[in-house]
Every structure is written in structure tokens, then in C-alpha cells.
Amino acid sequence: MPAAGYNLARFDFVSVRLAVACAQTGSLTAAARDCNIVLAAASRRIRELEAALGDTLFERHSRGLAPTPAGRAFVRHGLVLLRELDNLVAELADIRQGVARHIRLCSSTAAINQFLPPLLARYAELHAAVRVDVEEQVSELVIVALREGRADIGAFVAGPDTQDLQVTDFRTDELVLILPRGHALAGRTPISFVETLDEQWISLTSGAAMLQQQQQAALAAGRKLRLRMQVRSFDAVGHMVASGLGIAVLPRQACLPIIRAMKLAWRPLSDAWARRQLQVGIRPDADAVVVALRDFLCAPSQKAKAASPKIK
């Protein structure tokens, strides 16, 4: 059925939430209970939703429900709708309490772990009527969120194409080699990345700037990065290294507490790409409040407060 034929009046949020719950629980009975709807009414809502879409969302079998391809697509987008509705309700509640504006900040892990928390705390003190909502993503997805309008401002590692954005330098950081204590490569003098390529590696998930830099450096040396595991956080990287599963690269300032807590070793990298530029980006149509936040984060006086502690 073409989009123009959809009966959008049937797309109420109760039915959307019910369909999502059906997919999550695999049971109409459980979904109806979770949504506080009687079973007969829940069954009717799903049938009406399918009729409005002109497609079957769930296969019915003796063990419950299983989403069809159309059902999986509906649930994926339904989750986005429900999240936005929850955000709307929360924002309206904040307005009643004096918060006049929400700014959506999407940031790479490197910026969050090293620089943003004290800056955002100070900004909150100065601008009580503005709330900054933070979402953590790899740098490539930060750029995507900015372009798609899902973020008002982004902090990321320089590298992705930002031609259509207004970009300002934010901070610099340094990547260092993280190893189990007593590892053969442990030492104090800088080591080149190519000397480490016989090792098994732990890294962040695909799209992370660090992983891309490592893969590009390995390719330039005519070698392959022996990637053993990919995880989502710096802490998880540290745990894997501490367990002897591989070595890793992390930003020096961010990994200080991890090195201390997990009794790891570290070593500087001699490669130029180990010294990185972090940036803040906004769209050209950003309003004055977003521009002011960008200027606050990137002000030279703020950079002076972010001197990196030494790793001993």
C-alpha cells in the first residue's frame, strides 16, 4: 500500500508502544499487561495497526509472537518515536521547573572522558535555564547526528568530513600504548606503532577514531592489525588488557585512572598520529544559544584549565 494510503489516525502512541512491547516480550499477553491494556483490546489494536499499514507485523505461533521483516522495521522506528515522546514529556516538565532550553550535545568517548564533565558543570552553574543533554557516540556518528539534526552540537576527533559544518578546535590529546604490567613491550621510551603489530589488540567498536587511525597506520606499513576484541568503553578496554587478552591504545589523560586502578603499564607512541586534535562542530543554522555554548567550550581560558595530569 503506498504511503499516501496510510491511515495515520491509527498510529497512536499506545498502539506503537504495544507493538514494541510485543516484539520485546514475544507475547501479546505480556505486552498487554506491560501497557495496562486488556488482552482483547490489545489484540484489536495490533490488528488495526496491521490493517492501517497494509502489512503483517507479527507471525503468530504456539510460543507467542515473532516480528516479520515489516514488524522489525516498525519496531526500530517505533522505538525512536517513543524515545522522542519521552524526551518531549521530560522537556515540558523541565520548562515547568524553569528550564527554558535543551541543547543536545553528541560527543566522542575521548571528549567525554577527558574534558567535557567539568566544563558542562561550570556551564550549568552559569546558565541554569539551559540543560545540556549528552549522548556518547564514536566520532563518525557524532557527525551523522549533527547533519541529521539529532544533535545541536558535537565534540569529536578530527578526521571525518565536516565540510558542511562550522568546526572549531577544542582540545588536543595524546594516544599511548596500554599493556599488562611486565609485558615485553613495557618501557618508558617512545615506541613506534609498527613495532607492536605482532601483538593481539583490544579496541573500541567500529567507527571509533582510534581504531581508524590504528588500521590506517597498519595498512601504511603493509601489515594487518590483529584485532582480537572490540568493546564500547575505555574501562572495558582496560579490563581486557589487564586480563592479558591483548594490548591497546587509549588517550593519555583518560587512561590515567584506569592504569592506576588496574595496575597496567603504559608507553608513549612515537607516531605523529598519536597526537590528535579534538573539535567542536555545529550546523551553519545554529541559533545563538548553541553558538554561545560552542564559544564557551572552546574559549582559550577554558583550555588553560584542562592541563593534563602526569602519569607516573
Summed up, the domain count is 3
CATH fold descriptor of the largest domain: D-Maltodextrin-Binding Protein, domain 2
Largest sheet: 7 strands, mixed
Proper CATH architecture of the largest domain: 3-Layer(aba) Sandwich
- The 3D shape can be described as globular
How many H/I helical runs?
A: 12
CATH classification, class level of the largest domain: Alpha Beta
Q: Mind telling me the CATH superfamily name of the largest domain?
A: Periplasmic binding protein-like II
Average pLDDT figure: 88
- The computed structural class is alpha/beta
Alpha carbon gap, first and last residue: 66 Å
Helix content: 40-55%
Q: Beta-strand percentage?
A: 15-25%
Low-confidence stretches: none
Number of strands: 11
Over all CA atoms, what is the radius of gyration?
24 Å
How would you characterize the overall build of this protein?
The protein folds into 3 domains: 3-93, Arc Repressor Mutant, subunit A; 98-170 and 276-304, Periplasmic binding protein-like II (D-Maltodextrin-Binding Protein, domain 2, 3-Layer(aba) Sandwich); 173-275, 3-Layer(aba) Sandwich (D-Maltodextrin-Binding Protein, domain 2), CATH 3.40.190.10. It is built from 12 helices and 11 strands. The chain has helices at 13-25, 28-34, 39-53, 69-96, 109-114, 116-126, 139-147, 209-220, 234-242, 252-262, 288-298, 300-304, and strands at 58-61, 64-67, 101-107, 130-136, 153-157, 166-180, 201-204, 227-231, 248-251, 264-268, 275-282. α1 (13-25) crosses α4, α2 (28-34) crosses α3 (39-53) and α9 crosses α10. It is globular. The termini are far apart.
